[in-house]
Specification:
The protein is of the alpha/beta class. The chain contains eight helices and twelve strands.
Amino acid sequence: MTALLEIRDLRAEVIGEGVEILKGVNLIINKGETHALMGPNGSGKSTLAHVIMGNPKYRVTSGDILFEGQSILNLSTDERARLGLFLSFQIPEEIEGIKMRQFLINSYRNIHSKDERTLLDLNKSISELTQKLDLNQDFLERYINTGFSGGEKKKSEILQMGFLKPKLCILDEIDSGLDIDALRIVSESLNSFRTEEMGILLITHYQRILNYVVPDFVHVYIDGRIVMTGKKELAEEIEEMGYSIIERELGININEE
């Protein structure tokens, strides 16, 4: 079976700085799987997400990224999005002049060009998803993330995921800045949007979202590479003991990374 996403010994640096940030990442995500990526601040988790999406700020120096068996290294970010890759941002950008509803419909038409549903049908779907996320309908008439609270910005990301129906969702700290009620709503919506054809890479510092979104695999990410993989129990152990578990079991001194 061809993996949905396969990362092979991926190394990358910030263009112009010459400092290696990804230091040999290996990861396989199959359809229907949810993978949690955990690690301390500054370990390069967000960098990995941006490199997968083709952020031009970074240069891949070696290795490969395969999506459904084909290398995507030479594809632009928008080409990767059309293939079905989606990234929710840790800190979503505010975009003046483009309303949420307009953005959602234009993006959907761009990605799902063969879908012949009417504008009325698409608007109905958007309204249903907005209600599920406990957002007012006037939210759709506001400019993207402009004046949104932290919780609204994260709900906006999940709304995009639910409506655009990507094949691979990379969620970069979707739980940060959420109170317990917003975390529950976001998590429940995320679970309802998951399908057997979708893969999810959930990047987080904390175990709390994994109480709602149960991962198939948990990866510990230190200094630009995955150093340990386990099940949900690994996340629970990290929550209890911190990343000292890595120091103990692998002999890695995180303070020196």
